[in-house]
Amino acid sequence: MNKNEITFDPVQLEKKKQTLDPHVFQITQKNGTESPFNNAFWNFFEEGIYVDIVSGEALFSSLDKFDSSCGWPSFTKPLEAENVIEKTDRSHFMIRTEVRSKHADSHLGHVFNDGPPPLGTRYCINSASLRFIASDQLLQEGYGQYKSLFDKK
Hints:
Elements: H1 10-18, H2 22-29, E1 48-52, E2 58-61, E3 65-66, E4 74-75, E5 84-89, E6 96-101, E7 107-112, E8 122-125, E9 130-134, H3 138-141, H4 147-151
């Protein structure tokens, strides 16, 4: 399977999961967490979208990214709400809301209610669960439907 291919076939998704880098596998499949301020996208603000590293499903946009000073990439909302599943997480003696991708079931991070107005949400996401696609590469990568978001600027 081409790394840029979008697939929701369960067999192909399982095959792709087995080829993940060990660090990425730990984060996305074992509910791991990256170190703050030591990951690819915490301080990265180029224009484009972020997709699930396993399935390629569209998750977040740079237009909704903000500097939350927490050390992980933070977004006010998902790009495609139907691709993001929220679940109660009772691990580590806390109650939080975990965020997972719908089709690949990748652990993405957590959502908190301390984000900026008007929504007040902060999707705190592990860089290892994401692949960035620059706005000038959307057509070539098969995400042309999002190109107009960046053409308006």
